[in-house]
Amino acid sequence: MKNKDILLDVIGDTDEKLIPELTAKKKKAVS
Amino acid sequence: MEDLHIIELYWQRNESAIKESRTKYGGYCSTIANNILHSAEDTEECVNDTWLRAWNTMPPEKPGRLTVFFGKITRNLAIDRYRKDRSQKYGGGQTALCLDELGECIGEDYPIEDRLALKELLNSFLYDLPDKNRNIFLLRYWYMMPVAEIAKRNDISEGAVKMILQRVRDKLKNYLEKEGVGV
Predict the structure, then answer these.
(1) B152–A18 C-beta distance less than 8 A
(2) pLDDT of residue B87
(3) Residues in A touching B119 (Cβ below 8 Å)
(4) Are B123 and A14 within 8 A, CB to CB?
(5) Measured between CB atoms, does B126 come within 8 Å of chain A?
(6) What distance in Å separates the CA atoms of residue B131 and residue B174, rounded to the nearest whole number?
(7) For residue B98, with 0-12 CB atoms within 10 Å meaning exposed, 13-18 middle and 19 or more buried, which class applies?
(8) Are B43 and B30 in contact (CB under 8 A)?
(9) What pTM does this model have?
(10) What is the pLDDT of residues B6-65, one digit of tens each?
(11) What is Dmax (Cα atoms) for chain B?
C-alpha cells in the first residue's frame, strides 16, 4: 500500500470532534 | 429519534435499531459512499453493510457522535470496495482525485509503518488549523466531497476552495517532512 493510501485511511481516524456536520444546504428565501 | 435511544436499541439487540438508523442517517451515509464510489448500486450495498457492521460493533461500542460513527464505517467500507476494483469501475468518484491530491503531501521514499504516530501528528496538525480551513480539508478528504459542492456549502468560489486546499496540503507536506514521515 502506498503512503498516500495510508494517509487517506488515517484521515478517516481523525478525532471525531473535528469532523464537520454535514447539514443540508441552506436554501435562499424566495420573495 | 434521539441518538442515545438508537444506541440503546443496538445494545438491547432490537432490530428496529437498523430501521431507525436508516431513517435518520441513510441519506448521510449514502452521500459519503456515493462521493467515493459514484455508483447507486454499490452505494446502497455499502449503506446496508454499514448497519450490519454497526450491529456487530454495538455492543461493546458506545459512540460519542453517532453521525461520525456511521459515517466512518461507510467511508471505510466504500474505500475497501473502491480498492478492490478501483480504476475500471469507479472512475467517476472522487477517490482517485483525492488520492492524487494527498500524494502531494507525503513522500513515498520510505513506507509508513507507524499509523498510530501518523494519526497523532495529523490530529495535532488539524487542531492547529483555522476552523474554516480544517472544515474544508475534512469535507474534501474525510467526506470525499467534490470541490464544487464544498464551494456551494461555504458560499465561496471553486477557485477559493482549491486555493485553500492547496495551501493546507502544502502546510501538511512541510509539517510531515519536518516530522520525517515518508521522507
Answers:
(1) no
(2) 59
(3) 10, 13
(4) yes
(5) yes
(6) 20
(7) buried
(8) yes
(9) 0.85
(10) 999 999 999 999 999 999 999 999 999 999 999 999 999 999 999 999 999 999 999 999
(11) 50
pLDDT at residue B76 tops 70? yes
Residue linked to cell 468518484: B93
From the CA of A30, how many Å to the nearest CA of chain B? 18
Which positions in chain B touch A15 (Cβ < 8 Å)? 123, 126-127
User: How many angstroms separate the Cα of B133 from the Cα of each of B155, B157, B173?
Assistant: 14, 14, 15
Task: Say how far apart CA B97 and CA B91 lie, in whole Å.
Answer: 9
Interface test with A, best of B102, B124, B156, B164 (most A CBs within 10 A): B102
Residue keyed to cell 484521515: A11
Q: At A17, which amino acid appears? A: K
CB contact under 8 A, A11 and B79: no
Query: Within a 10 A sphere around the Cβ of B111, how many other Cβ atoms?
Result: 10
Can you tell me the distance from the alpha carbon of B63 to that of B58, in angstroms, rounded to the nearest whole number?
Answer: 9
Q: Is A31 on the interface with B (CB under 8 A)?
A: no
Residue A27 near chain B (CB below 8 Å):
no
What is the C-alpha separation between B181 and B183, in angstroms, rounded? 6
- Rounded Cα distance between A10 and A3, Å, is 10
Cell numbers representing residue B60 in the block: 461493546
